[in-house]
Amino acid sequence: MAHQAGGRRPAARPVPESSETRAYLEDYAAVVEAAPFPSLVVDLRWNVLLANGAFGTLFGDVRPHPTAMPGDNFLRFVLFHPDADRVLGEHEPGWCLPMLAQLKSAMEGYGHDHELQAIRRDVAHDPIMEAAYRQGLPHWIRAVGESAARLDGAVRLLHHPDPRRGTAECRIVDETPPLLRELGHRRLTMIPREPSARTRRAHLTVVTTPQT
């Protein structure tokens, strides 16, 4: 896993780009680590190249898995890790379907890629997942619109392992700088949202004045 919990600076995963690009990613790791919220950099296959300490803390309690650890490949984690729903709230509609849409989009653009093909095969080997990919996903997109599959700006639920934080909404923000985008990488950060006024009012307790 690429997590660097405990405040350690995350190390960039080896990439086949130039030495200047590798140096850039190593330096950019400090930017990712400085973020107070869970933040990660992924490639087009959703391999995690960088992840900060807040990301490691958020997913630190998930059990080991041979192929679907959150700091190795985030797409595989969402789709295949049995603990994914312990961290990702409303797992199927909020995370699985949007990430299946991300897989579909990646396959349309890079269908020759062996790693993407391997993920697609694993989806095909799971009857429920395959049905969601072939039938459920198109129906869902027609029902909610193409924008629902977009990650930037999406609001999702997270179950934080810290009981003081509990379950809360986060907004996913795409913070990809131009050079990362040129490399086909993306940086995504999960920003916790303050409860809305309506939510806060729902938790107010009615206090009655005792009669004298």
CATH topology, anyone?
Answer: Beta-Lactamase
Indicate the mean pLDDT: 86
The helix/strand series, from N terminus to C terminus, equals: HEEHHHEHHHEEHEH
Strand content: 5-15%
Number of strands: 6
Assign an overall shape.
globular
Q: Find the structural class using helix and strand composition.
A: alpha+beta
The CATH architecture would be: 2-Layer Sandwich
Uncertain runs are 1-15, 197-210
Cα distance spanning the termini: 64 Å
Cross-sheet strand order for the largest sheet:
2-1-6-5-4-3
What's the story with the biggest beta sheet? 6 strands, antiparallel
Q: Would you mind describing this structure in some detail?
A:
With 212 residues, the protein is an alpha+beta fold. It has helices at 19-34, 53-58, 74-80, 84-87, 91-110, 114-125, 127-144, 178-182, 197-202, and strands at 39-42, 48-51, 88-89, 155-159, 167-174, 186-192. The radius of gyration is 19 Å and the shape is globular. Residues 1-15 and 197-210 have low confidence and may be disordered. The protein is 44% helix and 14% strand. The protein has a six-stranded antiparallel beta sheet. The protein has one domain (5-202): Beta-Lactamase (2-Layer Sandwich). Strand 4 (155-159) and strand 5 (167-174) form a beta hairpin. Helix 5 (91-110) packs across helix 6 (114-125). The chain contains nine helices and six strands; from the N terminus they run H-E-E-H-H-H-E-H-H-H-E-E-H-E-H.
